[in-house]
Amino acid sequence: MTATWSAVAYATSYQLEQDDPQNGANIVYNGSGTSWTQFVVANGTVTYRVKACGSAGCSTFSAASNGVQLESGAGGF
User: Fold this and answer.
1) Please, are residues 30 and 50 in contact by the beta-carbon 8 Å criterion?
2) Which helix (H) or strand (E) holds 48?
3) Are 64 and 5 in contact (CB under 8 A)?
4) Tens digits of per-residue pLDDT, 50-74?
């Protein structure tokens, strides 16, 4: 699965948070790109939020995505 988000003018990096029932909420990406690919290793429904960071600090997280159903062996998204 690939998560993508829109670039923000002042941003120099982004943080992507994944929230799933097994592991809770965790930052899964912290970098300058606007996409991230996960190779699915577990089944379940997850949500994602992203925030933009720049010289003045980071924004708040975006609203959570709709639930995404992940399935083992599905490859990248």
Assistant:
1) no
2) strand 44-54
3) no
4) 999 999 999 999 998 887 776 655 4
